[in-house]
Fold:
Amino acid sequence: MALYDTLFNELDISSAQLLVTDSDFRDKDFRKQLNETVRSLLSLKVIPIFNENDAVSTRKAPYEDSSGIFWDNDSLAALLALELKADLLVLLSDVEGLYSGPPSDPKSKLIHTYVKEKHQGEITFGDKSRVGRGGMTAKVKAAVNAAYAGIPVVITSGYAAENIIKVLQGQQIGTLFHQDAHLWEPVKEVGACEMAVAARESSRRLQALSSQERKKILLDIADALEANEKLITIENEADVAAAQQAGYEKSLISRLALKSGKISNLAKSIRVLANMEDPIGRVLKKTQLADGLILEKTSSPLGVLLIVFESRPDALVQIASLAIRSGNGLLLKGGKEAKRSNAILHKVITEAIPDTVGGKVIGLVTSREEIPDLLKLDDVIDLVIPRGSNKLVSQIKSSTKIPVLGHADGICHVYVDKSADMDMAKWIVLDAKIDYPAACNAMETLLVHKDLVQTGALNELIVDLRVEGVILYGGPRASSLLNIPQARSFHHEYNSMACTVEIVDDVGAAIDHIHRHGSAHTDCIITEDREIAEIFLHQVDSAAVFHNASTRFCDGARFGLGAEVGISTSRIHARGPVGVEGLLTTRWILKGSGQVVDGDKEVIYIHKDIPVDS
Structure:
């Protein structure tokens, strides 16, 4: 105890020793008093140090009877964690954690996550610890008991500096014991081609289901996400902590975090998607080619999709639900910074998919090295959708023969015309920039009509942006007039609380600027002049063009698509927010009654359009 006093005194913290015996835990009054005592000591900034009062317990081995008797400090720690309803129990050892065999054996491997069903019969314990009485066997028993009662436990080395702090930061230190650990057990690693083929085979079983059966899968996924929200949040918080520790940019961390209410909103979006009209097998056009010969053009899944995305784990949920609704197989590759979030989300979602389809309909690619192999599978994968930086999209486009759908940049403009309602302009400009600066539909460039300089309206907008903490850069005209740093390039996506400002002569100049420096994503005009608005709406060649509305509305969920796999600036197949319809192609179904061509001698073509519901 003297050592504890000395160590804590160096930190100006007091400590107090509390001695307990096995029999104390039989007494309900003692247990109640125990909680009150600990709370009181902590409120006084006194660290309680628990110790066994007897040198050696005469009781049986831990947990062999229902009274909860302890016989060493490990079992005592587990009991105290349960009694005090601890958030976490850290058991310190003289080795890094639990190994598959004796730590001294070079073949032994550190077990990062203990899965009782897998490891219970596989581990060979070595010699007893050099310190304490219980050894690793006692630590594992104590950890399993606490973990399966709801207290997460980490066994790690007490000799390594700052190990406890690293555990609290969510770093992968030592061995974790958790009642839900079996949910995190990674699936057996398979090759890229095998994974893609399995996704295609499973997607065909998915397409063979009835509309109601596919709908039920989505509803089950929504329920599973909500049921596992706490577990998902824990894993996501660990990713966020690791990203902060690694010094990632704030914009990436913002996209990485699943903020409060996000899981609930994702589940709600999935239910909206589930209740939409079944997109598969819809008759889009029906034609009578000849007497008794009917041709139907029907909607059909594309096949297998490969989605490569960065940072945002919520994208995994949206994409997976859209793939299920559209009957497509799916391969997902998320960023390494969201590894734990993606793993648990994938686990929860695939376990909600019935065996008649199989969880392999959605494959999670965990290694970056597998991407080049996947991009070669143009005979199995039908569409690649990259969601991320310009560099990511460009690399993928140059590395595959598979069609690529997506956008490289989200350089969105808001043009404030001279006839704009300035109160409206203020709210739209602020929303477009600060509602979610890291989003691809956030405003990156503010264009202002030159007449608004004289009226003072431009200065008001600048003040409003600065008050909200937006860093401003200017084009050649705006930088000198407003005395702000000149932007190095108009073609720049900040993804943060920053934007470029430039002054233009009129709507024509604004359109020219957007075509020259934009990314054909989303652009907006604020004006009360309908004629000017129509010119802008019809001439700006972007995937989404708005009048008097924030660029932030360019979103699959807000468009009523249920969700989106991304926003496409391509001009072929799909453009703008890509929902279910963007993941479909068409097939031709011909129904005859024995007709043959035979040089068209006997066929009289009429090519008559008939109602699709006839």
Notes: The longest strand covers residues 293-301. The radius of gyration is 31 Å.
